[in-house]
Write a structure and sequence with these properties.
single chain, Serine Threonine Protein Phosphatase 5, Tetratricopeptide repeat, mainly alpha, ANK repeat, Ankyrin_rpt-contain_sf, flat, repeat, Poly(a)-polymerase, middle domain, 1168 residues
């Protein structure tokens, strides 16, 4: 097999193969070994085994075959021969504990101090680490260096055996005069590690051997006593104390053993340290004393011990918090009572002025608040911003605390520095019961805050808190008060936000409807502008004469309100040019739409080949070329869009009555009406949707059945053709589709007209729609995208008019009608706004014409392709259809009137593509069907087979099997991946090497890939002709570039790579939060993470910065950058970018990130 690391195969014996020799050495086959020794020209030559070169003597020493080792020694083989990684036979025998073989090798003059090349460790170190006493004694007897240190960590044999609890080995090394104070690279001594792990007898032996008990390790400055105290090893603590140790030695952060024992809550340890006269008031660098730290963590037994030892109960840390403050903050009642009993100052303030009762009130710790009140705490002391205990408890809605403070004579009208009162902040946050308590305590309902001059009634109205508004009105709040900045009254604010119930309450309380803001806007104006019809009705009822320029007329038509919000200085022509230019710069041009179509066809081809099914079709906006993303056309699917996949079910063929021309007398023809055939027994659910993420778009899976022919296609009828402006070539293609019914088959889906669910199947014209959309010119496509934006983001979106019922299919139909009815000479960039307005008017007129009492099912327009077929509102029940249609008509009217400013918003939402016009396409990331297929042995590997080979490799990497056969099989599987998956292949190789223990080889692989870059997309400049974008071009790109490095896989449970460090194992693969069982792999991110983890990049921070600056960096690349950034601020900036782009980050990764941030914070603090 081709080994990992690409080492060349060595020359093999003509008589006995290398594999036979190694197996013989492993199994003890003396006959084969003898034959080999007779025939071999070089008895010391090495052979490939598990990715490294070793000799048969190595293997025999490893497995313990004494007879084979004796034969080799008799033949005078080199007993110090080192493997490819520098390991000698004596290393192998020592590690495995084969004492007899060690003895044989030593007698044969093997070098007992020889070191391997990876860790620079000697055989004695290996034996000591693994607790092989007899081997250790044998090596000591042979004068092995008892203080030989392993190079990577600096561990000595004594350290390693102390770390692993090998008492007898420790004693043997001490007896051999090993240096008991020899520290590892971190400065930890054997005594330190034994104390950390709680090995009492080893500690005792080391102390008896005069180990330095005060030796501090160099990372944190911890002593053996400190680490034993931290881990609660009280017997070891006693042992150390009895050895006359210094009990007050502090770490670099100033923590003493008593501090850390108090923090961890080890009362026995604390008691022993107090008896040893440890300083109970010794403070760490932030000023925390043992008592403060124990109080903060609620360790009441420790607190009692420290108080009894005369610890200062009022000793504050640097920021001024006392032990009582921190106990109160964290809700530790028993500790609080102990400290009060010990005469703690209940009014001691922190640097920012906070008292214990303040912090307990803010946290809602009622029993602690009551205890502090009983201890005469001052309830009106204010912190530096002026917040009182009552203020913060009211702010957070802690009703019982509020009541206790009021009972204790807290000042209910005490204002903080900006003038906010407890009543104001409770009103702001919707705490109605708190508001009532404060009012009962005579809180002033009209006290104003200083900055804006707003009252509690203003802020309660702003938050929509109806109950509080009514409470304040009843308490005599001033109704018509205007705030200082804009002059808004409570009525104006309620009208602006559409709070009709609050408006009603304010009107009943005689609020003045005529009061305007300083800009001249009235409550009626702002309600009309924001389309709050119920508020408008209430205001109109309250005042019959309203300025008609500000409101709807009696027919419900909006007047010129939009003129107040938008300057009409720009003409339609100028706006058209700006809109066309912005859309063009964002990639919405015909050539890029064609490239999108070609990519969809390639995705369909991959899907068909994987599933061996030519009746699978990629349809919808992803395939139609336009509207799959409303920000730019660069191959990426909008998170709110989807990929539609339709499967034609075999064996089902329906025959529409009146259109079927089949001559088989046995067939049953089905009645056809209103675009549906009669077919009882089918559920009305055309699509099985899934939810999209930034990494994988939503998918709609649709099953369909063939229809033997198309019904009458309206735009192909002569009366329509004669007036049609659809290009003749397109009409001809449509006619061919209808006539052949093979490549674009007519079909039915599981959907019915309103009220007919379970009785009908809907006829779908998706292939004809696809033909039409794929034929759109640049300007026609831009019209379609603009209309789709206005419907999805303005009319239907919660941030817009929030009106449901209109759907993208209505936009598609309107676009088709525009193409059919608009002469070619009118399709000019200067006319784009006029065309958009005309399309909206067309949709408006269609909806308005269907506003009839008998339209119970919500018919909105005619189907474009199917004659006498209606389209309906989306998701509207029959009781609401007339009302919804009426609202759609008025909303479309408003959109038409406000079109200029809405188009300016649309322009602002567009994202220009970069100069290279990068077009993103990762088939295996968006593959609609993730069902695994059996890996085949085609040679070379077909593109569609890459997915399953990578998946199989990942699965094998998670298994515990590390046998030679497993390694060979995985290596062969990985090697099948072609160069178009180069980065994926090399990353898998590196993972395999790490799993099987070939660290150096892994480092070599990732290092060799440092200068290589994946292809991040198809370079597609704006001026490329449409004809250049085709199926073959996309396929050529995929096969000739390193393009295949993003994958989504379905697994029953998350694959775990146990051999990776925690950080990498948490990141790879990344679970998609709203797609159970779906996992994302980015091989480029994985290779970067391996480079960073293995430290094969010199200036790794610049590499991280390069990733974070990429506009197209995905979640996994950004998470990798955040995880490895050396600066906490940079890491958090990357994390915030993920949050802004609505990435959903698994809790496990968030936890690892937080640990990383804590490490960076601590490192920064230590450096300071």
């Amino acid at each position: 097999m081709q080994p990992f690391g690409n080492a060349e195969q060595l020359h093999r014996s003509a008589l006995i193969s290398d594999r036979e020799v190694l197996l013989a050495a492993k199994t003890g086959d003396v006959e084969v070994i003898c034959r080999y020794l007779q025939s071999a020209q070089n008895i010391n030559r090495q052979i490939l085994w598990n990715g490294q070169t070793i000799s048969p003597l190595h293997l025999a020493s490893m497995v313990g075959n004494i007879s084979i080792v004796e034969i080799f020694i008799r033949q005078q083989v080199d007993v110090d021969i080192q493997s490819g990684s520098g390991i000698s036979p004596l290393h192998f025998a020592s590690e495995a504990g084969h004492q007899k073989i060690v003895e044989l090798l030593v007698k044969a003059q093997a070098d007992v101090n020889i070191k391997d090349e990876i860790y620079c460790s000697a055989p004695l170190w290996v034996a000591a680490q693994n607790g092989h006493l007899s081997v250790v004694k044998e090596l000591i007897k042979s004068f092995a260096n008892v203080d030989s240190q392993e190079q990577k960590t600096g561990c000595s044999p004594l350290y390693s055996s102390s770390q692993n609890g090998h008492l007898h080995v420790v004693n043997a090394l001490i007896k051999a005069k090993a240096d008991v104070n020899l520290e590892r690279c971190s400065g930890a001594s054997p005594l330190y590690i034994a104390c950390e792990n709680g090995y009492y007898q080893i500690v005792k032996s080391l102390i008896n051997a005069r180990a330095n008990t005060n030796l501090q390790e160099s990372v944190n400055g911890s002593t053996p006593l400190y680490i034993a105290a931290q881990n609660g090893h009280h017997q070891i603590v006693d042992l150390l104390i009895n050895s006359k140790i210094e009990v007050n030695l502090q770490t670099k952060r100033g923590f003493s053993p008593l501090c850390i024992a108090a923090q961890k809550g080890h009362p026995q340890v604390v008691s022993s340290l107090i008896k040893a006269e440890a300083d109970v008031n010794q403070q760490e660098i932030r000023g925390g004393s043992p008592l403060l730290i124990a109080s903060q963590n609620g360790h009441h037994k420790v607190v009692a011990l420290l108080i009894n030892a005369k610890a200062d109960v009022n000793l504050q840390q640097v920021t001024g918090e006392s032990p009582l403050f921190l106990a109160a903050q964290n809700g530790h009642l028993q500790v609080t009572l102990e400290l009060i009993k010990a005469q703690s100052d209940v009014n001691l303030q922190s640097v920012d002025g906070c008292t214990p009762i303040f912090i307990a009130s803010r946290q809602g710790h009622l029993r602690i608040v009551d205890s502090l009140i009983d201890a005469q705490a001052d309830v009106n002391l204010q912190e530096v911003r002026g917040f009182s205990s009552l203020y913060v408890s009211a702010e957070n809605g802690h009703l019982e605390v509020v009541n206790s403070l009021i009972k204790a004579q807290a000042d209910v009208n005490l204002q903080e520095n900006d003038g906010y009162t407890p009543l104001y902040v409770a009103s702001q946050n919707g705490h109605d019961q708190v508001v009532k308590s404060l009012i009962r305590a005579n809180a002033n309902v009209n006290l104003l805050e200083k900055a804006n001059g707003s009252s509690p009634l203003h802020i309660a109205t702003q938050g929509g808190h109806l109950g509080i508004v009514n409470t304040l009105i009843r308490a005599g709040a001033e109704i018509n008060i205007q705030e200082k900045v804009e002059g808004s009254t409570p009525l104006y604010i309620a009208s602006q936000n559409g709070y009709h119930q609050i408006v009603d309450s304010l009107l009943k309380a005689r609020a003045d409807i005529k009061i305007q803001t300083y800009n001249g806007f009235s409550p009626l104006h702002v309600a009309s502008k924001n389309n709050h019809q119920r508020v408008v009705d209430l205001l109109l009822k309250a005042q019959s004469e309203v300025n008609k320029e500000m409101v709807r007329d009696e027919q419900g038509q909006r007047c010129g309100v939009h003129e107040l919000a938008f300057s009409a200085a720009s003409s339609d022509q100028t706006l058209s040019q700006n809109l066309h230019s912005a859309l063009t710069e964002s990639g919405f041009v015909e050539s890029r739409a064609k490239l999108q179509m070609a990519a969809a066809d390639v995705l369909q081809d991959v899907l068909r080949k994987r599933l061996n099914n030519d009746d699978i079709f990629v349809v919808g906006s992803f395939s139609e070329g336009w509207g799959n993303n409303l920000q730019c056309l660069d191959g990426r699917t909008d998170i709110q869009s989807d990929i539609d996949v339709m499967t034609l079910l075999s064996g089902r063929l329906h025959h529409p009555l009146g259109f079927c021309q089949c001559d088989d007398a046995t067939i049953v023809k089905q009645a056809y009406k209103n675009g549906h055939i009669n077919a009882p027994g089918f559920a009305s659910n055309p699509a099985l949707p899934s939810y999209g993420t930034a990494l994988r778009p939503a998918l709609d899976q649709v099953d369909a059945a063939r229809l033997c022919c198309y019904p009458t296609i309206a735009p192909l009828q002569q009366q329509r053709i004669s007036k049609s402006h659809i290009p003749k070539l397109v009409l001809s293609s449509l006619q061919d589709d209808v006539s052949s019914n093979y490549f674009s088959p007519c079909h039915v889906v599981n959907a019915a007209s309103p009220g007919q669910g379970g009785y009908e199947l809907r006829v779908s014209t998706s292939f004809l729609e696809k033909r039409m959309l794929r034929s759109l010119t640049t300007l026609q496509g831009q019209l379609f995208v603009t209309l789709k934006y206005l419907v999805k983001k303005v009319i239907c979106h919660t941030d817009g008019f929030n009106l449901q019922g209109v759907k993208p299919y209505h936009v598609k139909t309107t676009t088709f009608r525009m193409v059919e009815e608009t002469p070619p000479e009118q399709w000019k960039p200067d006319n784009l706004v006029i065309l958009v307005r005309r399309a909206l008017q067309m949709l408006h007129d269609s909806a308005e014409s269907n506003c009839k009492p008998d339209n119970a099912h919500g018919r909105i327009m005619e189907h474009f392709f199917l004659s006498d077929t209606a389209l309906y509102l989306k998701g509207v029940n029959r009781n609401e259809s007339e009302q919804i249609l009426s609202r759609i008509v008025s909303t479309l009217k408003a959109v038409i009137e406000e079109l200029p400013q809405l188009l300016v918003q649309f322009i602002g939402s567009l994202t220009p593509i970069n100069e290279s016009g990068k077009f993103h396409f990762h088939p295996f990331q968006i593959l609609p069907n993730l069902t695994p297929r059996l890996t085949v042995k085609s040679d070379p590997l077909k593109y569609e087979e890459i997915y399953d080979v990578v998946r199989e490799c990942l699965q094998r990497l998670t298994k515990d099997d590390c046998s030679l056969q497993s390694q060979e099989n995985l290596a062969l599987l990985i090697s099948r991946l072609p160069d178009c998956a180069f980065t994926t292949r090399e990353a898998l190789k590196a993972l395999a090497c790490i799993k099987f223990g070939y660290q150096k080889t892994a480092e070599r692989i990732v290092s060799h890939c440092r200068g290589h870059s994946v292809s991040r997309g198809i370079a597609w400049w704006a001026k490329k002709p449409s004809a250049a974008a085709n199926f073959d071009v996309v396929w050529q790109y995929l096969r000739s570039h390193d393009s295949t490095w993003k994958f989504c896989f379905q697994f029953d449970e998350r694959p775990v790579f146990k051999f990776l460090p925690v950080t990498l194992a948490a990141l790879f693969p990344l679970q998609l939060m709203n797609k159970p069982g779906c996992f994302f792999i980015n091989s480029e991110a994985l290779m970067l993470a391996l480079n960073l983890e293995l430290r094969t990049i010199g200036d790794f921070q610049s590499k991280i910065a390069e990733v974070t600056q990429r506009e197209d960096a995905d979640d996994l690349e950004l998470l990798t950058a955040a995880m490895f950034a050396s600066d906490i601020h940079e890491s958090k900036l990357v994390f915030n970018r993920l949050v802004r782009q609505s990435s959903q980050i698994p809790a496990t990764i968030q936890a690892v990130l937080k640990r990383r941030w804590n490490e960076l914070t601590e490192l920064s603090n230590n450096q300071k």
